[in-house]
Amino acid sequence: DASKDMMRQVTELVDNVMLDLSGQGENDPYRMAQSLRRKVGKFVKDKWKREPFIVPTVVPMTSEIVEELDPDDHVPSL
Which InterPro entries does UniProt cross-reference here (predicted)? Predict the structure, then answer.
């Protein structure tokens, strides 16, 4: 299926861009999202002659071990 192949290629590109950014020491989510938007947009435009509306979301994460929260030690959500 063409759409699955397209998604596979875009996913591979995103993985490679994120690996490149981390190798360069980039850790600013805004700059990472900007780079993803530019590179994926150019790739899709060059390959399929489309101009997609891309809204990348980069969620900051930590590699540290996070302590498990005590369920009794929280404020109930509103």
Answer: RNase_J_C
